[in-house]
Amino acid sequence: MRKLYSLLKYTLLILWGLTTLFPIYWVMINSFKPTSEILLNPLSFPTSFHIENYLQLSNYGNINFLKGFKNSAIISFSTTLLVLFLGSLASYAIARLNFKRANLINSFLVGAQLVPAFSIVIPALIVFKTVRLSGSYLSLILLQTACFLPFSILTITSFMKSIPVELEEAAYIDGASVLQTFLKIILPTSIPALVTAGIFVFLWSYNDLFMSLILLPLREKQPICVLLSLVSSAYGTNYGAMMAALFVTIIPVVVIYTFLQEYIVRGLMSGAGIR
Amino acid sequence: MQEKYTKKYKLWFLLPSLIIIGIFIYYALFATFYYSLFNWRDFSKYKSFIGIENYKYLFRDISFIKAIKNTFILLLFAVVFQIGIALVLALIVDTLRRGYKFFRTIYLFPVIISGSAIGLLFYLMYSYDYGLLNSLLSLLGKEKVLWITPKTALWAVLIPVIWQYVGFYFVIILSALYQIPQSIHDAAKIDGFSEFKKAFYISIPLIWDVLAVCISLVIIGTFKVFDVVYVITGGGPMDASQVLGTYLYTVAFTGQNQGYASAIGTVIIFLGIILSLIAQIITKRERIIYQA
């Protein structure tokens, strides 16, 4: 009886695990089959490994996944760096502010986190039009930075608050300036928080569809997620290519996840859930 | 001396972030509300003030009503199933001695993958000729099924949206369960509580504050749903799976009616905030802090 009960528990857990793993496995094996084989045997392991599906990705009509990767890299790395740069400066200031003002800024940031992208894109488009940035990488980078900064500042601030003030005072006494103290003492000490914030900003930026779709109408500049959203209509019945497109898109994310899982879990628990 | 010296720096450190957030979040939010009071189409230079006409029209707009209805259905199912499944899984894993990391790793997979990838994945699974679901049916010797019809489309998008984030709530709930002190578990054991009884009378009441936070997160998350629905059905067929996000996109960028879309954008943020406030009031209880 006891054993049966235990078996039931594991069965439930494994069943849910199958719902998350099996679809990805299914996409992976099918991405190595020609479409005709997918239609005949959608569930079996490929009889031989074909890479034709992957070769098509760099050139399918005007959808170029290599270019998409390049665009994604430009956008996501720039956004991450900008957020970390501005965010760590702001966090340092907030961590050492007096209580009353820090509270005010805290509400400002928490409030900003609640605003969905739907309620801000149209004015953002007008702002970019006015400063002649329409359709540029920079427009998307700036908008994503604004959306992801609040979470990053809150995360980094709570870490910086735990750094003892004595550490800085020692540096001041040795004649270091505020900037030097920040660069040589505060930043290196805060690396764990910077990594956590950085991973989430990168993932959100890489995974973003809505803002990218609206701010970058030119195919030339669109990141990978936008291209992926076009695939179902543009590839017609070329299922093999769709599977390959899907699989290459999730590879970078899976790699980051495999190596940095502990940081991701820690970040999720600090409220980085829904984006 | 030091204080005065650093004060000037603090302002300069803070200012760039505050300006960017101020413009793109707060100013933009106000501007959305402002635009919602105008008849404004095709991003034209000219807009005419029409007061609350756009908001009045919302009540007569069948597509909008459908989108609101669908969003609320999604919200209800997300609260029940996302948190429900996550809670059951977490309660089970809490009773295990090993395997916690293994299950956490695989349950979090969908959480970190983009909505557009999840969308395409389900699009492929639902497809008639070669989809995963129909292959499984054929394997069992059954007829193939057309999965996306006006009647089923809402369920077809609801399932992936809910499924994707179960792992996230699982992690949050499990970490709350792990904070319950061992002494409480020991006491329950001595009193002869079964695992079921312990879950209902001890674990769930003790993590109630965390479940309340989860409900607020589900509400905020539901009003942000876009990618998965956009890729699987685009809100169709015939608005069957339309949610607020996809409808706003359709109105603003296919229908080119930015004034009306701004009204929808304003409604989205108001509903999100009001509902999460209500949820917080309903679920409010004292926070439990364990003493060593």
Overall mean pLDDT score of chain A? 88
Query: What is the terminal separation of chain B in angstroms?
Result: 42 Å
Number of helices of chain A: 13
User: Approximately how much helix is present in the residues of chain B?
Assistant: over 70%
Q: What count of domains describes the coordinates of chain A?
A: 1
Cα end-to-end separation of chain A: 44 Å
- Strand/helix succession of chain A: HHHHHHHHHHHHH
Backbone shape of chain B: globular
Q: Say what the CATH topology of chain B is.
A: MetI-like fold
Oligomer: heterodimer
Rg for CA atoms of chain B? 24 Å
Any idea what the radius of gyration of chain A is?
A: 23 Å
Provide a count of the helices of chain B: 14
Largest sheet of chain B: 2 strands, antiparallel
Describe the structure.
Chain B: This is Sugar ABC transporter permease. Chain B: It is a multi-pass membrane protein. Chain B: It is found in: Cell membrane. Chain A has 13 helices and no strands. Chain A has 275 residues and is mostly helical. The mean pLDDT of chain A is 88. Chain A has one domain: MetI-like fold. Helices cover 75% and strands 0% of the residues of chain A. Chain B is mainly alpha-helical. Chain B has a single domain, classed as MetI-like fold (Orthogonal Bundle), CATH 1.10.3720. Helix content of chain B is 72%, strand content 1%. Chain B has 14 helices and 2 strands, in the order H-E-E-H-H-H-H-H-H-H-H-H-H-H-H-H. In chain B, strands 1-2 form a two-stranded antiparallel ribbon. In chain B, a hairpin with an 8-residue loop joins strand 1 and strand 2. In chain B, helix 1 crosses helix 14 and helix 11 runs antiparallel to helix 14. Chain B is globular and about 75 Å long. In chain B, 43% of the residues are buried.
